[in-house]
Amino acid sequence: MKKYTYTEKKDTRSGFGAGLSELGKSNPDVVALCADLTGSLKMDAFQKAHPERFFQIGIAEANMIGIAAGLTIGGKIPFTGTFANFSTGRVYDQIRQSIAYSHKNVKICASHAGLTLGEDGATHQILEDIGLMKMLPGMVVINPCDYNQTKAATIAIAKHHGPVYLRFGRPTVPNFTPADQNFEIGKAVMLNEGTDVTIVATGHLVWKAIEAGEKLAEKGISAEIINIHTIKPLDEEAILKSITKTKCVVTAEEHQMHGGLGDSVAQLLSRKLPMPQEFVAVNDSFGESGTPDQLMVKYGLDTSNIVTAVEKVIARKK
Amino acid sequence: MQNTEALKNLCTLVRRDIVRMVHAVNSGHPGGSLGCVEYFVALYKVIMKHDPANFTMDGKNEDLFFLSNGHISPVFYSILARAGYFPVDELKTFRKLNSRLQGHPTTHEGLPGVRVASGSLGQGMSVAVGAALAKKLNKDPHIVYSLHGDGELQEGQIWEAAMYAAGNKVDNLIASVDYNGRQIDGDVEHVLPLGSLKAKFEAFGWHVLENNYGNDLEKVIESLKHAKTFVGKGKPIMILMKTDMGMGVDYMMGTHKWHGSAPNDEQLQLALDQLLVTEGDY
Questions:
Q1: pLDDT digit string, tens, across residues B201-216
Q2: Mean predicted confidence (pLDDT) in B177-187
């Protein structure tokens, strides 16, 4: 098992804020919109440096999506910021008609996704957003794993012409990917080569997959670990190549089992390479109040759940 | 600018287009379309500075228009074609398979003249505000126009946009409401009363103008010109434009029943008999 280390834990939303700040300096067409969550989204640095390109919309997310669509007409590259719940479910039809169907170059940037939002509880813990967004034709869906990767993704999506959903979160997590990484939309990142099982993880579950890989190695199980930061378009080639070798897969994500990364991988396998798959995801349930760590344990998204799922899927191999 | 007689003839021609388009596919929305003919002819032939032959999505250095109540696509398509955005002959593809003239307007098939999809109501004012903000960032002095249905104002997003536009002095936007008093289920006053739209928009901080003669071409031109004099004065501008749904076809007037129904062969002939051929049909 390849060794991964980190010097500090950082929140992915700060990676977004840092990336947006850099874009503000390097690309005069980048504009930012926020619905009364500037501090939470770490957009304050951009706001301070470029007040003329920052739009405080107030608590009116539907209007924010529409204004963002309008700003593209005139050549701007709008980045909208609010919590993932208000970035997707609340404004689904606005995104569908004014952005996706109209193919507008808007970057929908969503923080506090999933259970790790913590104590605010299920009203704010959206676990359906990946599914909602990946169903929209032409929408790119990205869920980076740490601060550095979120920063790199933020900068990268400005160069992609078309709608993008960028999902990140609130808690601090190990910042282990390189600061100078080249973020390629739609390109899987191989974290560890192995032979017994493939673990495909996204977002906050990537570090947990690494931890699981270490525990599995102690048990003599060789896990191949792939970081899927882009759920759509999915790097089918990398996933198929790996599972052709390992003959089974565990998917891991901070999202509902229905509609998430696991669904995308299952659909791919059923079409091209039927193999056993186990899912580490929330099983048709809302979250609740609690600390992020408590919630990840209670809802089965912890390192030990990945280990158990791996053992189960290996047992299913013919 | 063409002379008034020619513009009035164009209005008749656009009305013929509308009823023929919806008749041909036995679907579409003739009522609201007929009621907004004068507005579209005034906007596209007199008021707006635009470049139909060289359509760009960004629309820099020209005026822009957004149709928020997308179901009146027949009048929109007719005037776009008659203004030179695409061949008039293409009107015959309206609502048919593989057409750029979808049931509701969209950018998806690349139809020149359309800059955002509309149909799901209440979204167009936000988009128009965004485009107006982009014009300000680009130091582009041109104006953004938008049109909304009165029933559409029941959508909450309209009021989010109205609040934002006034609060942020989006004064390069001239919105208009097609105030025909009717929606699918009946009179707006019965379905969900709007109260005083003038008082509402003024309370939101808009400069509100009223035109009680939205089917009088000269009055429509006058009200739009008057509205332009308030551009750059710190407030978004709203024209409450009273129209008659179905205007020009007697049996379609005074009722909501032709909101989304097409005439049959006999009814089409009855309509065309009231709309004298003044120029070439498509």
A1: 999 999 999 999 999 9
A2: 96
Residues 82-141 of A with CB under 8 A from B: 93-94, 96-98, 101-104
The structure tokens 């009055």 sit at: B219
Could you tell me if A57 lies within 8 Å of chain B, comparing CB atoms?
yes
Q: CB B126 to CB A63 under 8 A?
A: yes
Host domain of residue A69 = 9-174
Are residues B219 and B225 in contact, defined by beta-carbon separation less than 8 angstroms? no
Residue range B53-62: mean pLDDT, rounded = 97
Domain end point (choices A139, A174, A209): A174
Q: What is the pLDDT of residue A232?
A: 98
Among the three residues A122, A139, A174, which one is the final residue of a domain in this structure? A174
pLDDT tens for each residue of B206-245: 999 999 999 999 999 999 999 999 999 999 999 999 999 9
Whether residue A261 lies inside any domain: the answer is: yes
Per residue in A58-105, pLDDT (tens digit) is 999 999 999 999 999 999 999 999 999 999 999 999 999 999 999 999
Q: Do B135 and A55 touch (CB under 8 A)?
A: no
Provide the whole-model pTM.
0.97
Asked if pLDDT for residue B2 goes beyond 80, the answer is: no
Helix (H) or strand (E) holding B25, with range, is helix B4-25
User: Based on the domain organization, do A150 and A207 belong to the same domain?
Assistant: no
Out of B60, B134, B163, whose CB is closest to A70? Answer: B134
Any domain includes A209 = yes
Shared-domain flag, residues A80 and A193: no
Contact residues on chain B for A58, CB-CB shorter than 8 A:
160, 163-164, 167
**What's the CATH code of the domain at A264?**
3.40.50.920
Q: In terms of domains, do A97 and A222 share one?
A: no
- The architecture of the domain spanning B4-274 is 3-Layer(aba) Sandwich (3.40)
Cβ contact A101–B58 (<8 Å): no
Give a yes or no: residue A75 inside a domain: yes
**Whether residue A165 is found in the same domain as residue A272:** no
Q: Tell me, yes or no, whether A77 lies in a domain.
A: yes
Same domain assignment for residues A170 and A312: no
pLDDT over 90 (residue A280) = yes
